[in-house]
Amino acid sequence: MSSVSYHISNLLEKMTSTDKDFRFMATNDLMLELQKDSIKLDEDSERRVVTMLLKLLEDKNGEVQNLAVKWLSGALVSFHSSLLSSLLPQLTSPRMAVRKRSILALGHLVPCCSPALFSQLTEHLMKELAKGPPTSMTRTYIQCLATISRQGGHRVGEHLEKLIPMVVKFTGVEDDELREYCFQAFEAFIRRCPKEMSPHIATVTQLCLKYMTFDPNYNYDDNEEEDEDRMDIDDELEEESDDEYSDDDDMSWKVRRSSIKCLEALISTRLDLLLSFYSSICPALLARFKEREENVRADVFTAFSTLLRQTRVPKQTLHFLNKLCGDLCVQVPATVKALHRQLKEKSIKFRQGCFCLLTELAHTVPGALEEHIPALIPGIVFSLTDKSTLSTMRIDALSFFNVLLLSHPPQAFQPHMQVLLPPVIACIEDTFYKITSEALLVIQHLVKVMRPQGQAGGFDPKPFVKEVFSVTMKRLKATDIDQEVKERAISCMGHIVCHLGDHLRAEVQAVLAIFLERLKNEITRLTAVRTITLIAASPLKIDMSPILPEALSVLGSFLRKNQRALKLGTLACLTALVTHHAASIKPAALEPVLSELPTLVDESDMHVSQVQALNRTSTYQHKYYTRDYNPLLSSPLLSSPLLSSPLLSSPLLSSPLLSSPLSQLLKSLMEPFHRSQSSADGSIVHRQSYHSVAHCVAALSSASPKETPGTSGISSCALGSMAVGCLSDYLPFLLKEISAQPRRQYLLLHSLKEVISVCPASSLSPHVESVWALLFQNCECQEEGTRNLVAECLGKLTLVNPAALLPRLKQQLKTGSPLARSTVVTAIKFTIVDHPAPIDSLLKDCIAAHNKPSLIRGLLGRVLPHLYKETQIRKDLIREVEMGPFKHTVDDGLDVRKAAFECMYSLLDSCLEGLDILQFLDHVEEGLKDHYDIRMLTFLMLARLVSLCPAAVLQRLDRLVEPLKATVTTKVKAGSVKQEFEKQEELRRSAMRAVAALLAVPEVERSPSMAEFANQIKTSTDMASIYQSIKGGEGGGIGATESMDMS
């Protein structure tokens, strides 16, 4: 055996070791050996090497597995060219099966082949199509084009200028299958290359509209004259009609279906054309609701539902959304007219499509179906009562009914209660648990229809109460039923008692006793807690005194459970009970609860702490100790919602809490700071703690009748308010003091801001010039806080006379001082007010997209190039600073880039329809490789883009995956400080949130790079744990994204 073979055999043996490090090192060494040009292996050694590497693909260790994948991917690339050379001749095989398998193989080759190889394949197909081959071969080439476009993504875009005219030409050939493949190719082009397809959208749309009605074997004109009596035709005649027009040789339905799917792709990817779609595509789709083929009609419903979904996605501006909804409302009568007949058809698929479409319509424009509810009710009742109806059909009907109830006013259903209730009640008694569950949810909302809270109505619910109560009570008492039915029965009965309890006086106590039992059951306790909360807050003042002592004891025990949702629900329930039933609660009964409340004050869960504080506000008259909050007040994590909770407000502080001496309370608050200064362990109180405790001291001081604290801030505001009352006397004095008192300048500028903000423009106009001059004297102050205050004053002063002052303000942008220019830019920000103002028309050149996007949309073409330019790293702004023996890199352009990316994020919410998303993604992609702060922003932007424009993101997926993978797999050096570890960990988690959002996109698995990355996450314990925590804990779902604070 040669030395090379011996060495290889030795490595292969080590690759079978139980030690993962041995396997990893042996695999790595084998890779290095195989990369040498001089290596030559015999056939047996080659077979052993390949077998071992394939085995390592299933290795339990993720790093070993990734190494094997890396080697195989590198080794297989060299075969791509020979694979292509072998597959292309098979496209001309006389056997159709061979041609189809060759297309499938090419589809798998395209995602991983080089750009040159992809171009070679595309050029070959275009060359063959240009020859005008036989129809059968043309079908093969067009089908292959569609496949490689679906799999190859954006790479086909550079060839579209030549491809589109070819494919358009072949739609004119009298061959239905060829036309189907042409529209499939169009669909693939639209989905993968929406930007490159822009010049051809009109042509493709016209072709789709033409061929979606292509049905040469059927005449629809006679059918259109039929009325609703068509549903009563004898079954035999219906079957004869089906036989007459269901010709096995008729392939035209495939042309119609493919053209409709192509239209759906257009609707999905071209949000910018949505308004025009309502005038062109929407009426055409409505006209095809009469389609005779079941599969084609299902696709018509799907396309129309997509149009509705695109209308309600959270990316429209208010004006744009109102225009869309207005266009849609015009189409609602025609839509209902076309659908309400089909709701009684025997075809389950038709009816399910109708309910799905109507559900989308109700979601998109709530209330749009109010006038048409009488026409829809017969179809709902028919689906619920028809004996031949499948369970899934009943569930869909109940689900739609539920959406209808939630999105329309109660008055629309009250006249039809006699018809609606019986079929729903029958569904509650159904043997299938899913139907029972949905029916209980519908009854729950029907109860709200019978007696809406807060609305006075003339509807009398009394005739229906007994029947609704009886059927729900039967399910509530049952214990041998599905968990979902148990929870829905509890919730439904809770709403019955809450809304109709005064009609059930004798039965209410029996229901409450059952709720108490469910409260003690671990499986149903959370639902029971929420139901008791609902009943406690009922305006009917339901008597709950018989169950209160025992219920409070059980609720107190829940506060010890390590279940966050249960704690929050329990605190809400206790608050409702104390607020609405305080007279029925004895102090002794509340003791078990109060003893548990202090333990909930924890900086690790500020939300629970805040809810607990609200609860203590309701129960302070029973028991309260300030020391419970001392640990929280010293926390650096104390958030403003908790700090501003009613616990620290004057109603509570003026209560018996102040029976303790003020000095004692202050001493208790200050104790942590004195303790930290004298402690031997060196513990330090965080700076945020000073702010928190100061807030409490201020609240105590304001509540104390003997203390009247006067702060400088309050005094400056008071001075400004006084000056407003007599401008001629006080304003000159104020301006003089600002110049003469540099140490008090900041406070005096606050007074001036108060004057400018409050004083009417007519009164302030005579003094504008003197104030303007003074402000510009201080606009270059070295203190940033003072400059910001000057800027705010300038901005608000400009609103007095915008036509004259705004040009003067903008003229200052030409000054040479950077400080003055930054002050002017900040001042312009303060000229923006929420309500319409005379200055709006003058602000188009400098308005912020976040506040009044309507004024900047028309200027995006001029503004965006400058904005995108500021996102680029400028090497001339990067410098090195020597700090002792170390060199530290300082990037002076970081703040500007960060501001540019924040502006881009604002544009996503306010001006999305004016953005070129692919160009936008280019800069997001660069941001993913930038500084820590920039990457944190771009991860948020990417997750947002996934929800707004998934098709565009999919086009760039391969390029986006690499920076995400680099961030997630990066590990901090062992010698790094704790802050560096925390910083990198937060960066990894932010990147993983973006990855989780990407993985939620339906077609993402088609990307090989993303599939490989997902597999890498799955096999790595570290990455998998981060992904699972984000998927299940932080975001509440994969698609959840964080919001960026743009204040």
From TrEMBL:
GO terms for biological process: SCF complex assembly. The keyword Repeat applies. The keyword Repeat applies. Keywords: Repeat, Ubl conjugation pathway. Pfam families: TIP120, TPR_CAND1. It comes from the Eukaryota. Residues 855-1018 form the TATA-binding protein interacting (TIP20) domain. Belongs to the CAND family. PANTHER family: TIP120 (PTHR12696). This is TATA-binding protein interacting (TIP20) domain-containing protein. It comes from Astatotilapia calliptera (Eastern happy).
